[in-house]
Amino acid sequence: MDVPPSDALSGDPWTPTKQVCPLVGRxxxxxxxxxxxxRVDPASGASLAHIRGILFEPANIFYDDTLWRxxxxxxxxxxxxxxxxxxFFSVWQNDxxxxxxxxxxSFATVLREFLTASGFVSRQIDELxxxxxxxRLQFEAEHRLLPGVARGLAALKRNGVKVAVSTDSAFxxxxxxxxxxxxxxxxxxxGVVSSRDLGMSKPRAECYQAAAELLGLPSAEIALVSYHPVxxxxxxxxxxxxxxxxxxxxxxxxxxIERFDELLVLFPTEFAKRLAG
Length: 277
Fold this sequence. Notes:
Strand order of the largest sheet: 3-2-1-4-5-6
Distance between the termini: 65 Å
Order of helices and strands: EHHHHHEHEHHEHEEH
Mean pLDDT: 80
Structural class: alpha/beta
Helix content: 40-55%
């Protein structure tokens, strides 16, 4: 079917060649079940007393990195695409974007492949990619720290916990560090490890090993805080302690938190009191 030029980005809906996304099947998908509570026994802090270093994935831990995705899905929904955010972008997260994070392909190239697989045609994709580029730049510039992040990181550092960033990203470690500095987190980290510099992404063992070397600690004394189930499982395989942050797909046996400040209860009582003070 020949589809006329799109007016969707200006607010007028149109119909793509396939109304239902072939990537994820038919129909509207329900919201995934989220834990909604901290999965940790109040007395279990002692079991994490061995943790001397914490790795953080900044996206969706330090700041909300879903804004451009929600914008894109809203546009695609106007075009008649029937899917759900978590289902649609889990395919993007697992099968497409790692190529960008490893530096193998550009973001625009991978997004084009993703939209093509979703049933869109070339001229529609050209318009979407141009608009997405502008929106991503705007959202990237507008990232703001989530509540409790700056205070919590400062408290961890003040009390002797080594903190570093380990991220799968299209940006280099230097670029990520500069961004975190602009957000008011300068001097809080031992360093940053980025997949873009390594040329590989999680759950490759080398990514965790590079982060452990940066902290100067054995894996057994390190925790990874992430929202990504695959990255969390990779951390566990490498001997680290996974801490799921607002992660609906995490293994139920993992420690899980919904807010950054809940990290305090994962440490011994005396330590938590010092952090809170």
